[in-house]
Design a protein that fits this description.
alpha+beta; globular
């Protein structure tokens, strides 16, 4: 659990919603867990996300951010997966099929970048097939080989994750946290 100087542990703080452009991003709540798992796993058969269990999401709930529809349902989500105090991965980026094409993926990436900055991470990386999206957002295409920690995690989950399809690895150096 990450602790910010002079603050409660991240998992114990209630994070207020915040604006990313014209969209409100919320930190996920326990009641969101089944919807997060369902949305994430909708894309897993195509290799766009790794399968996530309710246990995984529960243990990483403080790392998930969501965009909600007016009825409270989840339109999109993103999470961070920490490797070290300086390095974090953007994971579980998913937008509901009926909400695609509205820029929600971009807003979720911005929200993940902001959360990573607030937590003091200096570098964020992502494995994705969405090359145009990440490049448009100022990320740099790199090689997964520079992240042996990620390769080790892939091997512990499924060796096929390293060989199925062509996944792109992107990285972004983060500056100091912006004040909101």
């Amino acid at each position: 659990m990450t602790v910010l100087a002079h603050e409660a542990p991240v998992a114990d703080r209630i994070m207020p919603p915040f604006q990313v452009g014209d969209v409100t991003v919320h930190h996920a709540e326990a009641t969101d867990i089944p919807a997060i798992v369902a949305l994430n796993n909708l894309y897993a058969p195509d290799g766009l996300t790794l399968t996530r269990s309710e246990a995984f999401v529960t243990s990483h709930l403080q790392d998930y951010q969501v965009i909600r529809a007016a009825d409270g349902s989840i339109l999109g989500q993103v999470a961070l997966d920490e490797y070290s105090p300086s390095l974090v991965e953007l994971v579980s980026l998913a937008v509901a099929p009926d909400a695609q094409g509205r820029g929600l993926g971009q807003r979720l990436i911005v929200a993940a970048e902001q959360l990573a900055r607030e937590r003091g991470h200096q570098e964020l990386f992502a494995i994705s097939l969405a090359e145009p999206l990440f490049l448009r957002m100022g990320w740099t295409l790199t090689s997964i080989e520079i992240y042996p920690e990620k390769i080790a995690r892939y091997r512990s989950i499924s060796r096929s994750e390293l060989s199925i399809g062509r996944k792109f690895c992107f990285t972004k150096r983060l500056g100091p946290a912006d004040r909101r």
